[in-house]
Amino acid sequence: MTRLSSNHLLGLKNLTSEDIQLIFETADNFKAVLNRPIKKVPSLRDITIANVFFENSTRTKISFELAEKRLSADIVNFSSGSSSISKGETLIDTVNNILSMKVDMVVMRHPAPGAALFLSKNVDAQIINAGDGTHEHPTQALLDAYSIREELEIDDFKGKKVVIVGDILHSRVALSNIYCLLKLGADVAVCGPPTLIPKYISALGVTVFFNLQEALNWCDVANMLRIQMERQDTKYFPSLREYSMQFGLTMNHLEALDKKITIMHPGPINRGVEISSEVADSAQSIILNQVENGVAIRMAVLYLLAAQREA
């Protein structure tokens, strides 16, 4: 397989396992480029990409911008805070105005679930979802799975056990990771307080833990998520201190295991809440590898989608 099955990247739910493997293989090539003295290739010369972010972002926005620059694309950056959105302009009008400047692809983050899908049906451009509300964050899930593949030195995820710990209810990262890892054949579990575990989660084919140590005993990889206070309109647990005592990962947890597990975090990290600094900075952590792999994965996605335009 040399082409993606979709003209957009809206989520992992609609990608095939073959699509994911193609993205990984393409990212392998781009990672080799990133380790060269000259880290730029002309693959997307004459392609113009708009980064349209309606929510704050550090890692994802910088990672996409860097990926675009490494591919020699022309870039337009859009921030909703200083735009006509604040004057009442609609999302479609805003994006169509950007596209009238001959933009080929749009990377969008938006607080509304389904915004990327809505846009893909109403504008003439390829859409990459950089996070839509509590729905999906596909490139984060791809780079997470790619980092597991690299760390464990595997091509086949069958039999590998990954637990996602934290605020599953409000996390787009968790949902995309679940879709991605299940498509690759991994066993997936979630862990957190009952109030932060969606009721539908078992229907996706994942195991549910309410005890962190039990989840760690089960897994090969633990992906720690932060508590998304900005998305919570009510209290889901008594206090951050109590949450940290029950579900915060410390060296004591790791030392109680009879095996080594891999620790991940999509960022931003709230040190001392969901993960201690000692664990985040330990040899078992691949958090910085995830950041590095994010550029290669996003280069791969941009490159493959651009190839769809020419086909």
- Rg computed from alpha carbons, rounded to a whole number of angstroms: 19 Å
- How far apart, in Å, are the first and last alpha carbons? 14 Å
CATH T-level topology of the largest domain: Rossmann fold
Write down the domain tally.
2
- The CATH architecture category of the largest domain equals 3-Layer(aba) Sandwich
Biggest β-sheet description? 5 strands, parallel
| Overall spatial form | globular
Structural class: alpha/beta
Mean pLDDT level: 92
Brief rundown of the structure:
The protein has eleven helices and nine strands. The protein has 311 residues and is α/β, with parallel strands linked by helices. The model has no long low-confidence stretch (mean pLDDT 92).
